[in-house]
Specification:
This protein has six helices and 34 strands. The protein has 631 residues and is mainly beta. The chain has a single domain, classed as Maltoporin, Chain A (Beta Barrel). It starts with a helix and ends with a strand. The protein is globular and about 70 Å long. The strands form five sheets. The chain has a 22-stranded antiparallel beta barrel. A five-stranded mixed β-sheet has the order 3-9-10-7-8. A three-stranded antiparallel β-sheet has the order 4-5-6. A hairpin with a 2-residue loop joins strand 20 and strand 21.
Length: 631
């Protein structure tokens, strides 16, 4: 298939970018470029990305909403090099066996707790299994998403071993009120509705949003339904202090049909997830920081189902979990060009897993089910310091260290260092060495026959990275290249019936990205990642590339993207399977009036036959249409 398609996509990208440069309108001003990109993920406080030695990709709200997606993950997979998201249907990722929604970055996975999702810097993961819950990450709450593709454990601790996906939530900054209602429907009975309002009166600003979605999906016994809501209240106490609280809730019902070769019946899931935080922030000319209290919690009920012709389950798996904590940090400018961040974190991880009888709802106490049950409380306490110093106007050095103590796994020192050299005003050479780690989770320590809390230690890795990025044509053209090497050890794996620290890995690769705003109507962007793994890992492709273009003229807008995935292992070992495929997606919109906008979108318009999860074929071409009201 597939060398020809790769060559065609690559040639198209090169031709389009070259045409864009030839027809560029020269300018000395920044119009949509990245010259002043400010991020918070790599340093806690708002910082110019040019002065950070870390690799961070920012996806803004316009990009997140351009393709009418209620979940952020499909867009991140397109826009972030080196990031792959597993999927199995039109809508919904689900949990448990057969689930999708794993976020894989440079060969490390959120499904294994090695990549962490944050909401405003607060950890979001299941307290029993340690993995992210993909259906929770809704576009309705996001102002932008910042993705750090190298270890972030120095700032965020365990589970940030391979990087973080930080959802920065929305905030109304001007007086007034703005309301949107977006609804659509299409293939396989798919429906999605989202309503949101943002308001500000004086010092008080609010964001409220709600969504509903459902789909029959493209296979029998694969229905998905979800309800979600988000509310945020922010109050400016003074010019220097503000406080905000927010709550995100989502509930979804999902059905897992099993693989094509081994279908399942009654394999259903009822999941509720929530995230709440209360944050006090300060902003002064020479210092800024925050004190926050947060809680990420969930309630899961799962019927594991049965094979066709088999016997229905008599009990249900249930779990309750919470990841709650307190975070305190302050950045101080001790002298010219200095940014010193000092922080402390406390985190309590709670998890309970058990079975109940389907008829009586009583807890099942058979020996087998008791072996598969657990009730655990773990604590983590950490302190860290990060010092960034502009030595000259062309050189910045950065060094930080964290000490993190887990109540069962013990202590971990986490160093990080890097540099930024700016040989020209519009370009940066960055280098970094950083350590990442992941403490064992409740499942590995206490659940099932492989449980082992006596001797398990943290997984760890060291990442080496060099990157160059530059902006040209007044900031409208941006390109970058990253080279990285990752060495990991102490991976937790079951050996001879027990979880032990036995695994090692070595990943290395190259990532490229470029974006160009041709004029007020046209913009294009592309990114590519090449990954070499000593041992092939599921859901980590050898090559992933994307080319997208956006056109806007008056009331009309169009967004088109082509994604190429090559060498994607859907299973490994003796029966390893690989996939290569090309996806074409497009969204077209037309604004009928200031109040009403119509849209239509198509996914997999080339009708590719492919799988991302082994045994779960993806749908061919799907279409949706809808409208947006805005007032």
């Amino acid at each position: 298939m597939k060398r020809n398609s790769i060559s065609l996509v690559a040639a198209s990208m090169a031709a389009t970018l070259w045409t864009a440069v030839l027809h560029a309108e020269p300018t000395d001003t920044i119009n949509g470029g990245r010259i002043n990109t400010v991020v918070v993920t790599g340093t806690r406080s708002a910082s110019d990305v040019r002065h950070l030695p870390l690799t961070i990709t920012t996806v803004d709200r316009n990009t997140l909403t351009a393709n009418e997606r209620q979940n952020i993950l499909p867009t991140l997979m397109e826009q972030v090099p080196g990031l792959m998201v597993t999927s199995r249907g039109v809508m919904g990722y689900g949990v448990s066996t057969g689930a999708a929604g794993g976020i894989n970055v440079r060969g490390l996975s959120s499904g294994s707790g090695q990549v962490m999702v944050l909401i405003d810097g607060h950890p979001q993961y299941n307290g029993v299994y340690g993995h992210s819950i993909a259906d929770s990450y809704q576009t309705l709450m996001a102002e932008r998403v910042e993705v750090m593709r190298s270890p972030a454990s120095m700032l965020y601790g365990s589970n940030a071993m391979g990087g973080v996906v930080n959802i920065v939530t929305r905030k109304m900054n001007t007086d007034g009120s703005h309301t949107t209602l977006n609804a659509g429907g299409g293939s396989y009975g798919t429906v999605q509705v989202e309503a949101a309002n943002q308001s500000r009166i004086g010092r008080l600003s609010t964001t409220t949003a709600a969504q509903y979605s459902r789909s029959d999906n493209h296979r029998p016994n694969m229905k998905f339904e979800q309800y979600g809501g988000y509310v945020k209240l922010n109050y400016d106490l003074s010019d220097h202090w503000n406080v905000y609280g927010d709550l995100d809730l989502t509930h979804f019902n999902a059905s897992n049909p099993g693989t094509v070769s081994q279908p399942k019946l009654e394999n259903k899931q009822w999941i509720t997830r929530g995230a709440a935080s209360l944050v006090l922030e300060n902003h002064f000319s020479g210092t800024n920081g925050a004190l926050s209290v947060y809680d990420n919690f969930g309630r899961h009920k799962i019927n594991d189902g049965y094979d066709v012709g088999g016997t229905p389950q008599t009990d249900l798996f249930r779990s309750k979990d919470a990841v709650a904590g307190v975070s305190l940090w302050q950045t101080i400018n001790l002298f010219e060009g200095n940014h010193t961040t000092i922080g402390a974190d406390y985190q309590h991880i709670y998890g309970r897993a058990y079975y109940t009888d389907r008829q009586t709802n009583a807890i099942v106490t058979t020996p087998r089910r008791l072996m598969q049950s657990a009730h655990a409380h773990e604590n983590e306490v950490a302190g860290y310091i990060d010092v960034r110093q502009d030595i000259t106007d062309w050189l910045t050095l950065d060094a930080g260290i964290r000490y993190d103590h887990h109540s069962t796994a013990g202590g971990e020192w986490v160093p990080q260092g890097g540099f930024v050299v700016r040989p020209v005003a519009n370009g940066e050479l960055k280098g970094s060495i950083s350590k990442g780690f992941r403490n064992p989770n409740t499942r590995e320590m206490y659940l099932y026959g492989t449980a082992n809390h006596e001797t398990l230690q943290a997984e760890s890795m060291v990442s080496y990275e060099v990157a160059w990025s530059q902006r040209l044509v007044g900031g409208r053209l941006h390109y970058g290249i990253n080279l990285f090497i990752i060495d990991g050890k102490n991976l937790i794996q079951p050996v001879a019936g027990k979880n032990i620290n036995s695994g090692e890995f070595n990943n290395r690769g190259v990532e490229l990205e470029a974006s160009y705003r041709i004029n007020s109507n046209w913009s294009v962007n592309t990114n590519h990642s090449f990954l070499h793994m000593h041992s092939p890992l599921v859901a980590s492709p050898k090559y992933k590339g994307y080319f997208g273009g956006m056109f806007t003229s008056g009331a009309f807008n169009a967004n088109v993207g082509v994604q190429q995935v090559c060498g994607l292992y859907t299973s490994n070992g003796a029966n390893a399977e690989k996939e290569t495929f090309t996806l074409l997606n497009a969204t077209v919109g037309y604004r009928v009036s200031p109040l009403l906008r119509l849209w239509v979108k198509g996914d997999n318009l080339l009708a590719q036959k492919y799988e991302v999860n082994a045994g779960y074929p993806m749908p061919r071409a799907t279409v949706m249409g809808g409208f947006q009201l805005e007032f």
